[in-house]
Amino acid sequence: xxxxxxxxxxxxxxxxxxxxxxxxxxxxxxxxxxxxxxxxxxxxxxxxxxxxxxxxxxxxxxxxxxxxxxxxxxxxxxxxxxxxxxxxxxxxxxxxxxxxxxxxxxxxxxxxxxxxxxxxxxxxxxxxxxxxxxxxxxxxxxxxxxxxxxxxxxxxxxxxx
Length: 161
What we know:
2 domains, eight-stranded antiparallel barrel, globular, Lipocalin
């Protein structure tokens, strides 16, 4: 009889701990029920150092692209990329229809650059603005795409030094 009372007292003492663990989103073992990377670490990546270098983007690129920016595509032109500070890069994309400015941040592994593009002071009724993604490749190459605002698909971009 006494052993039953001791067992029941122990069980009752555990109830507040289990309720508290459930209220804070943790299991009784102290682990979060949603396992994932620590805050600020990209999913599926190690916490180790980046595998590439942001300097791989900087400089002048000869690029080719398809799609709506420029005339008579596939088009060719120049993309000049500089550091803009605060972890951002700024690019100047020379086309037959003018110069577009690209602004964005480099990804965690420093091999992808994504952001927004637009032609400054564009007085057109429907100025071309949008988003882009470029990735550095081995041997001084970049690949990626740009997507003008209001379109459903992106257009390819490739480049070499």
